[in-house]
Specification:
Elements: H1 13-17, E1 34-37, H2 46-49, H3 52-62, H4 66-71, H5 73-79, H6 85-92, E2 93-98, E3 106-110, E4 114-118, E5 127-130, E6 137-143, E7 146-153, E8 156-158, H7 163-166, E9 175-179, H8 182-191, E10 193-198, E11 203-211, H9 219-225, H10 237-246, H11 248-255, E12 262-267, E13 284-286, E14 297-303, E15 308-317, E16 327-331, H12 336-344, E17 346-347, E18 350-356
Parallel strand pairs: 3-16, 4-10, 13-15
Antiparallel strand pairs: 1-2, 2-18, 3-17, 4-9, 5-9, 6-7, 7-8, 10-11, 11-12, 13-16, 14-15, 14-18
């Protein structure tokens, strides 16, 4: 689940640094046009390159989620009895292209970071990964559709501590572990989930649990505004981290310009999205659920200098920065390759939604 998933991300890296029942893809409050594509045959040569046996297996996995079962009731029921995977998708679905609105069409990426940690604080491992604080109150009141968060002070609900305040005190919260790098910890918040490797080699997983309720302020945009980067095009995970490592005396002040803070929980499995399913590298995407329902099977096409993709994927996650019908955030997995692509990917995107014929 991505950072700011209110339904495990996703925000995308670029947009974070620069600014769950059956749902109708196009609510009356949102305008988006769908152009019919009657069959997979009209989607170019993807029809020939796709591994439909793998796609079927992933579709069956996708059908484990209730929103997917509600979205594709007959298809999910039939999926476990399929003999010809390609014929199943041809006979069951039709493609509809989602036309972009005034918001920019873009594919970005996110990944599962690996941090070095310890269960006890040491001189090296001194940055805590907090669980949800005991004094954090999530009220019934909502602003912009999001529950108001805070803490009680003399019987009144006041804003919870900001990032700057949190880093200067000990919270009333369980510490899941301690890590050795404050920048990596910040990036963990951006991704929404990750792995922590202990000194004895054991690895455990952490995932999004809650936030302090403060609005997110873009670190990348702040660095552009201060003249550190010339434009948003220069901003990536890699460029931000490289600059911060060269200027450690300015790191805290810059990180604290973002008052929002994320709390985590222990996970029994690797990265899990808003749909509640383990994410599949380069098959799971985060979407704006106002336009695309969670659980939807999509076809996407995007080409850039660092990443080319033309395949079927699953809408299994959401993210605060993923806004618009033609926005998707591709989960890249973990490791150096995943980090590199996720940190730099920003490419034009076309999206088709696969709708059941019956």
């Amino acid at each position: 689940m991505r950072y700011f998933l209110f339904c495990l991300g996703s925000l995308s890296i670029l947009f974070w640094f620069v600014g769950c029942a059956t749902q109708k893809p196009t609510p009356s409050s949102v305008e988006v046009s769908l152009n019919d594509l009657t069959s997979l045959d009209q989607f170019g040569d993807m029809d020939e390159r796709e591994n439909f046996d793998e796609l079927l297996m992933l579709f069956q996995h996708n059908c484990q989620a209730i929103p997917t079962q509600q979205l594709y009731p007959k298809a999910c029921e039939q999926a476990s009895h399929v003999k010809d995977a390609k014929a199943f998708f041809r006979d069951t679905f039709r493609l509809k292209k989602i036309e972009p609105n005034e918001q920019r069409s873009m594919l970005t990426g996110y990944y599962e970071p690996l941090l070095k940690g310890s269960l006890t604080p040491t001189k090296r491992f001194k940055y805590p990964i907090y669980a949800t604080p005991k004094d954090l109150v999530v009220s019934d009141k909502k602003v912009d559709g999001k529950p108001v968060r805070g803490r009680l002070e003399k019987g009144k609900l006041v804003p919870y501590y900001t990032r700057a305040q949190i880093t200067k005190q000990k919270l009333k919260a369980q510490v899941l572990c301690y890590v050795d790098d404050k920048i990596d910890l910040y990036f963990l918040e951006v991704q929404g989930s990750g792995r922590v490797e202990l000194e004895d080699g054991r690895i455990f997983y952490v995932g999004y649990a809650n936030t302090n309720g403060h609005s997110y302020h873009s670190l990348g945009r702040e660095m552009v505004n201060r003249g550190i980067f010339k434009s948003a095009e220069d901003v990536s995970l890699q460029s931000i981290k490289a600059w911060l490592l060269k200027h450690p005396e300015r790191t805290d002040a810059l990180l604290n310009t973002n008052p929002s803070y994320v709390f985590f929980r222990m996970m029994s499995q690797t990265a899990t999205g808003s749909l509640g399913l383990v994410l599949t590298p380069e098959r799971s995407v985060a979407v704006d659920k106002r336009f695309i329902p969670l659980g939807a099977l999509l076809a996407i096409r995007s080409h850039s200098s660092i990443y080319h993709v033309e395949k079927f994927v699953f809408a299994q996650d959401t993210g605060g920065a993923i806004q618009g019908p033609n926005r998707a955030d591709m989960f890249m997995g973990h490791g150096e390759y995943a980090m590199k692509v996720a940190g730099e990917l920003k490419a034009p995107l076309e999206v088709w939604m696969m709708e059941p014929k019956f």
